[in-house]
Design goal:
globular; 39% strand; 5-stranded mixed beta sheet; 7 strands; 1 helix; mainly beta; disordered N terminus; two-stranded antiparallel ribbon; Ubiquitin-like (UB roll)
Length: 90
C-alpha cells in the first residue's frame, strides 16, 4: 500500500547548478535573485553600501545568459552557472 502523502519519485525533479564554482542541488526550475545570492552567501555581508551582482549562463530562459537583477527570476536547467559578487558602493 502506498503512502498518499509521499510524492511519486517522478514528481520530484532536482537540478544541479554551479554558483561561484560550487555545485548546488535545487528543486525549483525558476530561481530569484535572492535565491541565488543566498546560495552564494549563506551569511551575506550587510550594510547600506553592499550590493550584489549576479551573472548567469547556460540558462533555460529565452535569454540564455545575462545579468540577474533584484526582483527578477531566471529559468534554470542542469548546468546553469551563476557568478555572484559583492561590491561596496562608495
Amino acid at each position: 500500500m502506498s503512502d498518499m502523502n509521499q510524492p511519486e519519485a517522478k514528481d520530484h525533479k532536482e537540478f544541479t547548478i554551479i554558483v561561484n564554482g560550487r555545485e548546488h542541488k535545487v528543486s525549483a526550475d525558476v530561481l530569484t535573485f535572492a535565491d541565488v545570492v543566498k546560495l552564494a552567501f549563506p551569511n551575506p555581508p550587510t550594510g547600506d553600501n553592499v550590493m550584489f551582482t549576479v551573472t548567469y549562463r547556460n540558462a533555460d530562459s529565452d535569454k540564455r545568459e545575462g545579468t540577474l537583477v533584484e526582483g527578477k527570476t531566471v529559468t534554470i536547467k542542469n548546468g546553469t552557472i551563476f557568478n555572484v559578487t559583492t561590491t561596496t558602493r562608495s
